[in-house]
Amino acid sequence: MISRTTLDSWLRPASPELPVVPAKERRGLWIEITIVLLVTFGTSGLSGLLSLTESLLTPGDLADQAVALNVARAENQFIDAARQLLGVVKLLSWAALGLYLLWRGGISLASVGLGRIRWRPDAIQGVGLAALIGLPGLGFYLLARAVGANLTVVPSTIGDHWWRLPVLVLWAIANSGAEEVLVVAYLVTRLRQLGWSENSSLLASALLRGTYHLYQGFGGGLGNVAMGVVFGRYWQKTGRMWPLVIAHATIDSVAFVGYAALRGHVGWIP
Q1: Dihedral of the CA atoms 226, 231, 233, 236 (nearest 10)?
Q2: Which of 80, 142, 184, 263 lies 20 to 30 Å from 202 when distance is taken between CA atoms?
Q3: What is the mean pLDDT of the chain?
Q4: How far apart are CA 129 and CA 231, in angstroms?
């Protein structure tokens, strides 16, 4: 049984000893955050809102519409593969940008949970988090789609090329790295420096994660807000980022590769 003290520590965690920036420097930090988000997931969030609005204006239920997560980018398979890899590099560059700005500000990789990886415990916790989020998430998606609150999500429409599966795994890793580093480690750290509480910064991070998944529908948005709360709080309490990266990459890899392997063999997979 969870004690009241333990529950309280998870609901209202103590902020780490991170100096709050002086008032005269806060404007510059807000400008930095704004630019980073406009270049990365902030713009994706606005695009998600527009996509959801467009879907709602389209006649019929949301479930009658489909959205693909990984699509072919050229007719020629070699150009397609090259463009897929460029997309992977772009996402990893977003993560690198956030880490670089933190590093320039005197915040080490280790302090945001990206020090030396501890393979066994990090992998075990990562897989555990993946199961905690992935299994209920699949059920929530099916429910949201059944009630017409979510589009039909197609994980991949990439052609059946020899490189398809490794590229899908690379996409999963890139998605994981970019989202967890920027939306959790970078954003929450910067909001801490601005004097935000742990709960306020967690809420901002989770809502951002939800908005750039709204292109999938209300279910995708709400499901990712929940994921953001769980992942963000785990990081706030443990200071470990590797389990989040492993968990997210595992969830996406299973979805992308599993879809490619099971499509046509399982009736409920579109």
Answers
A1: -160
A2: 142
A3: 93
A4: 8
